[in-house]
Structures are given as C-alpha cells and as structure tokens.
Design goal:
The protein has 280 residues and is α/β, with parallel strands linked by helices. The chain has 2 domains: 145 residues, Periplasmic binding protein-like II (D-Maltodextrin-Binding Protein, domain 2); 90 residues, Periplasmic binding protein-like II (D-Maltodextrin-Binding Protein, domain 2), CATH 3.40.190. Helices cover 37% and strands 22% of the residues. Strands 7, 8, 9, 10, 11 and 12 form a 6-stranded mixed β-sheet that branches. Strands 5-1-6 form a 3-stranded parallel β-sheet. It has a 3-stranded antiparallel β-sheet with strand order 2-3-4. It is globular, with a radius of gyration of 18 Å. 44% of the residues are buried. It binds glutamic acid. Glutamic acid binds next to helix 5 and strand 10.
Length: 280
C-alpha cells in the first residue's frame, strides 16, 4: 500500500506547488502560455514513457514531446525556449482555458465534450483503448472479463469514462491522477487490470524494470484521435499548428519519431492520420 500512497502524496504536493506557482508564471509570461520572455509553455504528461516523460536528469522524451518540439520550432521557438508544464488528464482543459500553456500535446483525445471548452489542432496520432494485466494472469482476455474485477484508470480520461459507461459497467474502477500510479497498483495486486490507450500501456510494459511483468491484452476497445489542445477560437495558432503537423508527416520526422519512441514489441501503431482543416 505504501508504494501507492507515496506517489499520490508527491502528486498532492505537486498540485499545491502548482497552485502557488500559477500567479507567478502568468505574470512571467504575460498570459497565453506566452512568449514575452521568448519562451513558450507547452503542456504534456511527465509520467508516460514513450509519450511524455520527464527523465531523472530533467530532460523530456517521448512521441508527444517530439511532436510538440517540432511544432514549437515551426512556431519560432527553439527547443531551449520550451518550458514544459505537467498536464494530468483531468487538468488539461483548465490549463488551456486559464492561459497556463500555449498548447497541450498529452495523449489528448479529440472529442465533442472537450471541444466545448478547447479547440484541437491535428489529429496527429491514432491509438486504441486496451488493457494491461499482470503477465501471469490469463483470466482477462476481453472487456467483459473485467466485470466484478478491480480496474484502474485515470480521472478525466476517456478510458475511465468508456469503462464505466460501456465496456464493463460492473467493474469496480479505481480512478487515480496518473497512469504511472495505476501501474504501481497493478503490480502490487491492488487492481486486476488497468486501462487506457495501447500506446501508453505498451510504454509501461516495455519500461526498464517492467519487462516480463505485464501483458498488453491487445484489444481495440475504442479509437482515440490525439489532437493538440489550444485555446478556443485561436484560428491563427490552429492553422499554424496544423501546417506544422502536415510538414512533420511530409518530411519524414513523424515516422522517425514513431520509430524512436514506439520501438517496443507488442504494439503496432497506426499510420499518420489526415490533419483536418482549422475550421472543422
Ligand atoms: N487519450 C485518452 C484521453 O485523452 C486517454 C489517455 C489520457 O488520459 O491522456 O483521455
């Protein structure tokens, strides 16, 4: 139990620090995740290997980080001008609405409910909801097997909502703040499975220290189109980010980023989706 409590406590401390830091950062960058000091503030996950990860040495890595870095460069910001802001699933809309970030690239699925609050450039990636179980557990092979089992997912995610509403309404769902906390709960036997996008789950399964511990079930329980979240109504930024994403696919950088970050076995990524026009 203690190994679960610890990261949650750290997250709580981080949330308090964030709340205190907000007014300062808004002043420092003049709002808009903005660029008065020549910097751009970009939101991503900090705990998702292969997608958005803050490494022990402070550097950032992952596919979302590479996409965001490319987009930033196209917007005129070199990598050393990027300030990364941790953006947990449940906080993404608020971070955008409050101008705490310029944009968010954080396994952020485009959907109508979120579109009421923010706009999405892209899409730039397609994932599918899947399950991660302990390697020695052969009892879970499909979504219905989750009924009457314990399942972990993340507050504010489409994954948690899908399970409760459609996939396994009788599962007991433990909702935590981040997927890395679910991995600990799964490993410790507090839950029988965790669920979110296959790309995220594959990253944990392949993480150093985790190899051989978990099994990606290999289901396609939903289609998740990742978009770049921006402030509602910012047509100019929307068009610029779409142009950057198209260029990233055309010049081969998208493929290179996919190869670099999703090299692990057991996960077949989809081809690059078509970027839609800014007005749609
Ligand atoms: N892509 C899904 C979502 O946006 C699940 C992953 C996440 O929570 O970031 O909710």
């Amino acid at each position: 139990m203690s190994s679960v409590r610890k990261p949650m406590r750290i997250r709580l401390a981080a949330a308090v620090a964030l709340a205190v830091a907000v007014p300062l950062s808004v002043v420092a960058c003049g709002g808009g995740g903005g660029s008065d000091d020549g910097k751009i503030v970009i939101g991503t996950k900090f705990d998702q290997p292969g997608l958005g990860l803050k490494n022990p040495d402070g550097t950032m890595s992952g596919f979302d980080v590479d996409v965001a870095t490319y987009v930033a460069k196209e917007l005129g910001f070199a990598p050393d001008k990027i300030e990364w802001k941790e953006s947990p699933s449940a906080q993404r809309e608020t971070l955008i609405q409050n101008d705490q970030v310029k944009f968010i690239a954080a396994t952020y699925s485009i959907n109508d409910k979120r579109r009421e609050k923010v706009d999405f450039a892209g899409p730039y990636f397609t994932a599918h909801q899947d399950l991660l179980v302990r390697a020695d557990d052969a009892t879970i092979t499909k979504a219905e097997d989750l009924n009457n089992k314990k399942l972990c997912s993340v507050t504010g995610s489409t994954s948690a909502q899908n399970v409760k509403e459609k996939l396994a309404p009788k599962a007991s769902v433990l909702e935590l703040d981040g997927y890395s906390e679910c991995v600990v709960a799964l490993q410790d036997g507090l839950v029988d499975a965790m669920t979110t996008d296959n790309a995220i789950l594959a990253g944990y399964a392949a993480q150093k220290g985790n190899t051989g511990k978990f099994r990606l079930v290999g289901l396609s329980l939903s289609s998740e189109s990742y978009g770049i979240g921006i402030k509602k109504g910012n047509q100019d930024l929307h068009a610029k980010i779409n142009a950057a994403l198209k260029k990233m696919v055309q010049d081969g950088s998208w493929d290179a980023a996919v190869k670099k970050n999703f090299g692990q076995a057991n996960f077949k990524h989809e081809p690059a989706p078509q970027v839609t026009s800014a007005s749609s």
